[in-house]
Structures are given as C-alpha cells and as structure tokens.
Design goal:
Chain lengths: 199, 348
C-alpha cells in the first residue's frame, strides 16, 4: 500500500491502530526535517540522532493515547525540540563536572580557523557568515518560519514566546542578514576598486 | 503587486516563499522585477538568504537514517517483549524523567591483566546478528569525556578504553572497560547499567558508586552514594551489595571483601591530582607512565621496599620527579618521551 497520496491524519489513524509500515512511512517523510531542526538546537549530530530515535519511540509507545490537535509535523517538531533541549541540558550538567572536553575545543577552534580563512569575496559565504552571526533563537525562528513554513502562531507556540516578540525576533534577524549583505557589498566594491587602483 | 521596500517584506511574502521552495517562480514576480530594475539586487539577496537558511544544516546521510530506523525497530521489538513479559510494566521508560540522583562508578584496572580477560569476553557476547561495537580509547597522557547514548557520561583516564554495543540503551546498558574510568550513570528503571571490568561485574541498582581495580590482585569497587551490586565472575562469592562509603576489594584468593573507603581520595585522578598512599615504587612508576604518557626506565632499584605517600596537584612531570628523587634518592633524565631513573648507588 502506498502512503504517499494519503493525508497525515489518515496515516496517523493507521499508526494508532498499530500499522508499522505507516509508522515507518512517517519516519521517512519527516526524518530529514527533524534532523535539520535538531541542528538549530544542538551541534551534536549524535545527540540529534538519539533524539530522533526517542521521538519516534515515544510516538509509537503513545500511539493509542496521543491526540494530535494540530498537524503531525507540528507535533514531531515540538517533541523534537523538547527532547533535544532535554538532552543538551543533561549534557551540560554533566559538563560542569569536568572542565575540559577536548573534542569540543578542537571543534570550535577549527571552525574559527575556517571562518578566518574564508575568502570574503565569495558571495555565498557572506550569507553563511551572516547566518552564523544570528543568535540561536533567531536561527531557530527563521528556520521554522521560512524553511518549515510554519505560521507565526505555530512558531510562537513551539518556541514558547509571544507572537509579537517572535515577530520582532524574526524581523531583527532578517534585518541583520540584509544589513550584513549590504555592508559586505560595499566592502567588496571598495576592495575591488582598491585592487584596480593598485594595478 | 505592491512595492517591496526591503528584504524583510519580500521574505514575508507567501508567493515568494512558495516559489523559492518549489523552484517555480511566480510570473507575477518576473513582471515586478522588470518594472522595478532597481529592486533586482534586493530580490537576489532575499533569494540568497532563503537558500542559505536552507543550506544552514547538514543533511542526514542515508546510512544514518537507516541506522536510526533500525534502532527504532529494535526498540519497538524490545517494547513488545517487555510488555508481553510483564504487562504491568510502565510503557514509558523512567529514563525520560528527571531523576534526583545520578550514578557514579569508578573503575581502574591494570592494562596487561585486562587484555587476557578482554579478548575472552568479546566472543561471549556475539549473537546471531554481528555485534557492532563503539570503542573510545585514550593514549597515555590524555583524558577525555564521553557521553553515552542514554545520557550517562564517562570520564576516561589515560591509557584506557571503553566499548559498548551499537544498540546500547535500547537492549542493554553494558560497558566494557580497559584501564580506568569514572562513570556517571543516568537512571533507567528498565535497563540495568553494567560495567564489565576484569573479573568483576558491577550492576547499578540506581544511584551513585565508585569502583577501583588497579591490579589483578587489587580489584576494587567503591560506592560514593546509593546502591550497587557487585558480582565476581567465578561465582565463588554471593553478590555483594554496597552502601555509600563502602568498597569491595578482591583479595589474593579472588574473594570479595567489604570495607569502607575515602570517597574524596578515590576521585583524585579525575581532578588532576596524583595521589599515592603507601604505594609501591612500581605502582608509582606505572601511574606516572600512564599519566604523562612517557616510558620510564628504572636502574639500580633498591631491594628494600619503598612505600610512597604523597600527592601532586596538576604538576609537571619534572616537578614530580624532582620531589620523588629528593625523597628516595634517585636522579633522572628526560629525553622526549623517555625517562630514565637512576638510584644513587650508596643507597643500594
């Protein structure tokens, strides 16, 4: 049976009746989105994978009891957020006991090194840099709004903040991005003229 | 179409978002761009921002997707088995809840002894499905911290290795240890946390403890708080239950003896403190080799027994050697990773 032309509520109905194939279809359908979303909340890919495992396990375990009011996708994003944040917090508490985490230190310094050596003239990299400059919450909000296509109401529910503050957060993020781009553009231009001049 | 003044306005536009996501540009936008050539830059930036937001994450490799799915299937199978066996068991594992207490285990054992035990044990755990192992190891002179899939953490001492199965935290919570490590175990009402080290198996019943196993003849499990059960593989002894501040020491006859111990001292290595209390010279040398990642050669070692009681806080090797050399009458030389200790002849 093909699930691809079925709506989520129908598939969810099958899942709650214990249909494992339907369950796996939902996994395949949403795993990428959940993984991408997880990356807005943590840099630890293994942690994110564990969270995906736990989210789907939980979904299966509670298939008889969960009432999905909104969409299945929204429910999964919500569960994912909760699980990743919980795991990150556990990791953080543990981290306090030990001062050094060599992996982590290496990671950030390599990243810094890469950032420093980034060729500024590469225009695509500019945007990346600008995005890296956004706060974690800004990145998360922008991702949910523009990539997952959630409404302001949905994002605000997920991120547990007022719609008005969410709106400000997103607008600020977009403004940062466009300002950054505009600045870079002039910077590149002047650099270009400088190079011409030097020749 | 309205006149967009800035990127924000463009990005907020539904038809713009839809056209970027679908890859098909709404003709209305083409017209708008033609009418407003000065806005092309703005428009292009908006497109780039959106694309970059899209690319701002790595994608999950297909193999990883498959692995997670397999893990989920396995967990579901477990779940069925568990609820079949015991229908009253709570369906949601308690490890998803915050527990007041963590579990602390501390292990240590001699490297060479372990190799004998280690190789034997590997074979035993092989099922019909080939077992996949995750191994984390430290060379001499390096310590590290590892977070296990169930949220437990391990501080791994130098010259040590742990391994666990890929399905850790779904089917089992078994950890195999070579060397020395400090465990903080996340609570789980369904899966016991077990540590296999040498001939001892330590089962966490659900709180905090501490194990030591320096030598074949000096294995030790130390509990800092809560409760653990310790088994000796030969089964000569009944399992021993420990309470906080108590330890099990394996004596020369391989029998388990219960005593009390000093919690603070047992965790010194983790806090970068080298601690010796009536330690033999051989033991001290072995510890220093592991700690600093060096090879130490001893010449003219005196026949009389040397017992050393001292501690060093985050100290350089030369400082340690100076202090020890002064007390016990030896000189030393360091050549890269090789240290040579020469006892003064008159002391012989």
């Amino acid at each position: 049976m093909s699930f691809s032309n079925q709506s989520d509520p129908l598939i969810w109905d099958l899942i709650s009746k214990g249909d494992e194939a339907a369950f796996e279809y939902i996994y395949v359908k949403y795993v990428d989105q959940l993984f991408r979303y997880g990356q807005k909340l943590s840099k630890d890919n293994l942690l994110i994978e564990d969270a995906i495992h736990d989210v789907f396990m939980c979904l299966w375990e509670k298939r008889n009891t969960i009432l999905i009011n909104s969409s299945l996708k929204y429910y999964l994003l919500q569960a994912m957020r909760r699980d990743v944040i919980k795991k990150v917090n556990i990791g953080r508490k543990k981290k306090d006991l030990d001062q050094v985490d060599p992996d982590f230190i290496m990671d950030s310094s390599v990243q810094e090194l890469l950032l420093e050596n980034q060729i500024i003239l590469e225009s695509d990299q500019n945007v990346r840099e600008a995005i890296n400059k956004l706060s974690d919450r800004q990145r998360e909000a922008v991702f949910l709004k523009y990539m997952e296509g959630l409404s302001y109401e949905e994002v605000s529910g997920l991120m547990d903040m007022k719609v008005s503050s969410l709106y400000n957060l997103i607008m600020k993020a977009l403004k940062n991005l466009s300002d950054f781009l505009a600045n870079k553009q002039t910077y590149i231009k002047s650099l270009f003229y400088l190079l011409l001049f030097l020749r | 179409m309205r006149n967009f003044k800035n990127i924000e306005e463009i990005l907020e536009n539904e038809s713009f978002l839809a056209s970027i996501h679908s890859g098909k540009l709404d003709p209305k936008w083409n017209i708008w761009l033609k009418e407003n050539p000065d806005k092309v830059v703005l428009y292009n930036r908006a497109v780039r921002i959106l694309e970059e937001i899209k690319n701002d994450s790595e994608t999950l490799a297909p193999q990883r997707k498959e692995i997670i799915l397999r893990r989920i299937r396995q967990s579901i199978k477990n779940e069925k088995r568990l609820s079949f066996k015991n229908s009253t068991t709570s369906k949601s594992p308690a490890r998803y809840r915050v527990a007041a207490l963590g579990l602390v285990i501390f292990f240590s054992l001699t490297y060479f002894f372990f190799q004998m035990e280690w190789n034997g044990k590997q074979e035993l755990t092989t099922d019909a499905i080939p077992v996949q192992w995750v191994t984390k190891a430290n060379p001499k002179g390096q310590k590290s911290r590892i977070i296990l899939p169930d949220g437990s953490t391990i501080t791994l001492n130098s010259d040590s290795e742990i391994k666990y199965r890929k399905d850790f935290s779904t089917n089992n919570r078994d950890v195999y240890l070579k060397g020395e490590a400090f465990f903080e175990v996340a609570p789980d009402s369904l899966l016991e946390f077990k540590v296999f080290s040498g001939s001892l198996v330590t089962k966490a019943v659900g709180t905090a403890f501490n194990i030591q196993f320096y030598d074949n003849l000096k294995q030790r499990v130390q509990l800092t708080s809560g409760k653990v059960q310790v088994l000796e593989e030969s089964g000569m002894d009944e399992p021993v239950y420990l309470e906080s501040g108590q330890e099990v020491v394996l004596n020369k006859e391989h029998r388990m003896v219960k005593k009390s111990f000093d919690i603070e001292k047992a965790l010194h290595w983790k806090n970068n403190v080298i601690y010796f209390e009536n330690s033999s010279f051989t033991e001290v040398i072995r510890t220093l080799e592991r700690w600093y990642g060096v090879k130490i050669e001893v010449k003219n070692e005196p026949k009389r027994a040397i017992l050393i009681s001292t501690e060093f806080h985050n100290d350089y090797l030369v400082n340690v050697l100076n202090t020890l050399g002064y007390s016990f009458g030896f000189s030393y030389s360091v050549d890269k990773k090789n240290v040579s200790i020469q006892f003064n002849l008159d002391d012989k």
